[in-house]
Structures
1.
Amino acid sequence: MKNLLLVALGGFFGAVSRYFISRKLNGHNSKIPFGTLTVNLLGSFLLGILIGKKLGEAVYALFGIGFMGAFTTFSTLKAETLQLFEQKKTIKAAFYLAITYIGGITAGFLGLLIGRS
Amino acid sequence: MSYVTTGLGGIIGSLLRYFLSVTALSLWGDGFPFGTLAANLLGAFAFGWLTNNKAVFRKLPAHIVSGIGTGIIGSFTTFSTFSLETLQLVEQDHLFFAFLYVIFSLLGGLYCAWLGSCLAIKVSNTEKKSL
C-alpha cells in the first residue's frame, strides 16, 4: 500500500514536470521536439544514478517508478516520430529516433556509472 | 488547469503501469521486461488514436484531453525504465534479448502508434459519411 502511494505521488510530479518542460521546449510539430527529448534523456540519466545507488524499495517506488517513469514518455515520442514521417521529414524523424534511443541508453549507462562510483 | 489534470492523469497512468509490471513479473518472471513493453506498445496505440481523433477534440475541453493524453497515457508509458532495462539485459549478457527489446520498442511502438492513428482517421471518415 505504501508503494502505491509513493508511485502515485511521484507520478503526479513527474507528469507535471514533463508537461512544463514540453510546453517550454517543444516547438512546432515539424521540428524535433526538444522538450520530449530532454525529459527522456535527463530521466534516463537520473534513473541510472538512482538504480546505481541502490537506495531501497521506497525511494525507488517514489523517484524511480513514480517520478522518472512518468517524467519520461514513450507514447509521445512515437506520435511525434510518426508525425515527422507523415510530413516526409524522414531524416529528422530518423535522427530523432536515433538520438533518443542511443542517447537515452548512453545517458542511463553514465548515470549507472556515476551512481555506483 | 491543464497542469492539475495532467498531474492527476500522471497518478492514474503511473499506477496502471506499476500494476502491469507487477502482474507481468509474477506471470513471466524477470527474464524479459514484458510489463514495460506492453505498457509502451499499448500506450503508443492509445496516444496515436487519441491525437488523431477529431471527435475527442471537438467534444472534450482541452484540459481533459491533456489529462488523458499527456497525463494518463504519457505517464503510463515510460522511456527511462526502457533504457535501464535494456542496460540490465546487456549486463546480464542477454544480448539477444536486449536487441529484441530495442527492436520491438522502436519499430513495434511506431507500428502501434500508426495503427491507432489509422483507426481514429477511419472512424472519423465513416462518421462524416453517415452524416
Note: Residues 2-126 of chain B form one domain.
2.
Amino acid sequence: MNPVTIKAIARKEFYHLVRDFRSMYLAFVIPLLMILMFGYALSLDVDSVKVVIVDHDKTKESRELAQKLNASAYFQIVRQLNDSLVAVRYLDQGLTTMAIVIPPGWTEDLKADREASLQVLLDGSDPNFAGISRGYITAFVEAYNRDQLLSFLNRKGMDEIKAPVDGRIRVWFNEDLESQNFIVPGIIAIIIMIVGAMLTSLVIAREYENGTMETIRSLPVGGGELLLGKAIPYFLIALTDVLVAVFMGQVLFGVVMKSSFCLLVLASTIYISVALSLGFLISIATKSQLVANQMAILITFLPSLLLSNFVFPIGNMPKIFQMLTYIIPATYFIDILNGLYLRGLGLSHLGQSYLILVGMLIVLSYAGFALLRKEGM
Amino acid sequence: MSNSGSDAVYVEKLEKRFGRFAAVDKISFSVDRGEVFGLLGPNGAGKSTTIRMLCGIISPTSGYGRVAGYDIFSEAEAIKRSIGYMSQRFSLYEDMTPLENIRFYLGVYEVPQEVWRERIEWVLDMARLQDVRHRITRELPPGWRQRLALGCALLHRPEILFLDEPTSGVDPITRRSFWEFIDKLAQEGVTVFVTTHYMDEARNCQRLVMLNEGKIAAMGSPSEIISEVFPGRPGADLGDVFIRLMARRQE
C-alpha cells in the first residue's frame, strides 16, 4: 500500500469522472433532483381532502354542516351538487376523493332524536390517502355530534358533562407528523447508493472495456491500491452529496437534525464505503458497464428504495421480504438516520446498526479484493 | 539453468494452457542484455501470451523463467518495476491529456518527485508532444499516441522494454522513426523485446524466435534463420521463411 501509487490512481479516476458527462450527471444532478422531487412531490401528508356535497335536505342545519366542513383545514368543498349520481361521476373521474350526501329529512331526524345518517363515499384507490381521509371525516362527525350534544344540554339548562375517557394523544417523535422528516434521511440513503454503488459499478468494468485493465496489470499496482485509489474520488463526492442533502433538508424543508453531526458523518462514511465496495464487487464480477449498471439498479438502488423501511414499512411486508430487509445495508443506515434525525438518539442505541454496517463493509470489501485477485490483479 | 542470472530474459519449458489448449507449448529461449529481440509469428501463435507471462500479467501453467533476474512465478511485482510494457492498444487513458497520462505513470512507478519535471520534459521532447501536452489524448493521431505510450513505458528507466505489436495501425513513416528510436535505446543498453508479424520489423531484430501454434519454429539471427531454412538460396528473405515454416506446420 503505497500512498504515492494510491494518489496517482485517485487523480486518474478523478479525471475520468469529471470528463464523463454521464458520471457527472449521476454524481451531482440526480442527487439534487431527488432531494427536490422526493421532498416536494413525494409528500405522504394529506393536507386537504376534496369533497363534493349533495344536499337533498336544503335546510339551515344542512347548510351549516357544509360550511363547517369547508371551514375546516382538512376539507375543501369543490362543488355543491343536486344529484347523487353526478357525485358518483365526480368520484369516477377523480375530480374529488370524497362525496357527502345529506339525505332529505336529515334535519327532521336530527331534531326528533332519530338516527340521522350521513352518507360518505370515499375513493379508496390510494389506500394511504383514503385511510387518512376516513380518519379526518370520522373526527369531523364526532366533533359535530359533540357540538350537537352540548347545544342540546344547554337548551335543557343542564351542566356540561364530561366524556368518561379523554384520550390525550401526544406524538413523541416527529411531533407534527411531517413526512418530510423521514423522507430526508431516506433520500440520503438512496443518493449514497446511486453515487456510491451505481457510479463505481462502472469503474472497473470501464477499465476492462477500454483494455486498460491490461495496462494496470502490467504496472506495479496491487489490488488493494487499485480499489482504494479508485474509491477516493467517489467517496468524496458521496460525502459532499450527503452534506448538501442535509443542508437542503434543513433550508428547504426545515428538517433539523437532533443528534450529533459527527455521528451522522461517521454513519455516512461507513455506509458510503459499503456502497463503494458493493459497486466494485459488481464491476469486477460483470466486467461490462451496461450489465454492471443494470445489476447495480437491481441489487442496490431498488432494494434501498423499496425494502429499507423508507417508503414501505417493513412491518407490513410478508415474512420473506422482512427477512430480505435484514441484508439490505440501507435498512440499517435509515435506522441510524431516523434515530439521529427524529429521535435524537446516540451511539448507545444505534451502536448495533453501526456495527452491522461495519461488518457488511468488511465482508464486501474482502469479497471484491478476493475476486480481483482471482482475476489476476 | 545456465547463466540465467545474467540474461535479460531466460525461459525454460514455459507453458501456458487454457483448459486443454496449449497457447504456449513448453518453449525455451534466452535474451541477452542490450539485445533487440523479436518474437515473430502469425496471429494466435502465442506471441501475446508469451509476452504477458514474461511481464507478470498472467501466470504460466508450468516451466521456469526469469526476467531481469527475477522469478516470473514468485517475483512478478519486482519484474513489473524493472520493465516497461506497451501493448498494441497503446496503454493510454484517452480521456486524459498527455501530461496527465505521464503523471499517472510517474506516480504508479513511484518515480521520485524531484525528477518528475525533468522526466516529463524528456518524454514530451522525445515524443514531440510539447505543443499538445494539454490536449485530450483521444484527439491525437495514432502515431502521436504511440510515441506517448512508449514514453510512458520508459518513464521509470526500465532495464527491459516489452513491446507487444507496437506498430500495428501506424503508418510506415512513423514506423521507421519508431524503430530508429528503438535502436537508440538499445545502444543505451536497454533490452528490447518485441512481438510482431511485420517482416520488415523482424529484420531490425538482432535475434528472433519464430512462433507457430505455441511452439518454436525457428530461432537465431535473421540471416541464420534464412540460411537454415533455405540453404544455398541467397535470394531468399525472411518473408519466404515465414511462409514456408508456417505452411509446414499447418499441414
Note: The interface with chain A takes residues 55-59, 77, 80-81, 85, 87, 89, 91-96, 100, 103-110, 136 of chain B (CB under 8 Å).
